[in-house]
């Protein structure tokens, strides 16, 4: 019981000091993940771990990293990205060259750079507003640095590796052509207001970690952020079972279109 109170107090303190509401994440997964980190760092209680996090920025970033599960790759689930490249982006560009695209919970940047590759290949990158956001400043720093191990590139088409990356020993560096147009910024999806008028929102492999209530709120917010006819692209375990309640309809597997066009 004391252990439960300790974790509840930790949740309360984190929310008060950071606006991150851990109660909106699935508790068993979150508690297990954070307990492992706390014990690894040598803290006997969550409250003592929290106090240490407030004094040690590196520990706080490690907490965020563990909480947000920064597992990302370029072209993750390649057949879905091929659909973005061959069908959805060309359809959008026929109607409007000045697209507004958002990579939400972008982690360490592989997803927005994948979008940038697709747009660059179609000669549209310089015309597009491309936003990438995440709650974790440590992940955003890595995204801005744009240097990756080869394992992150395993699904990137070979012609794009050659064209858009520079290899330096073990690291692959993303070209300036892809880096410069992307606007990276910090954002808490569950708390912050969203911009509107997006043609495409990509939010993949993140929503699965939230409670059903939090998912419902997020899908509502994403739907409002899309322009009529705009697309929401979700992860392979994140099907929306009743999209109509959010004014969305299936466009393909893991793609949902906002009604109104």
* N→C terminal distance: 54 Å
What would the average pLDDT be, to the nearest integer? 90
Structural class: alpha/beta
- State the major sheet: 7 strands, mixed
Question: In CATH terms, what is the architecture of the largest domain?
Answer: 3-Layer(aba) Sandwich
Number of helices: 10
In which order are the strands of the major sheet placed? 6-2-1-7-8-10-9
CATH evolutionary superfamily of the largest domain: Vaccinia Virus protein VP39
Uncertain parts: none
Count of structural domains: 2
* SSE run: HHHHHEHEHEHEEHEEHEEE
Shape: globular
Number of strands: 10
Which topology of the largest domain does CATH recognise? Rossmann fold
The amount of helix comes to: 40-55%
Beta-strand portion reads 15-25%
Q: What is the C-level CATH assignment of the largest domain?
A: Alpha Beta
Pfam families: CheR, CheR_N
Organism: Paenibacillus silvestris
GO biological process, one term: methylation
Domain CheR-type methyltransferase: 1-261
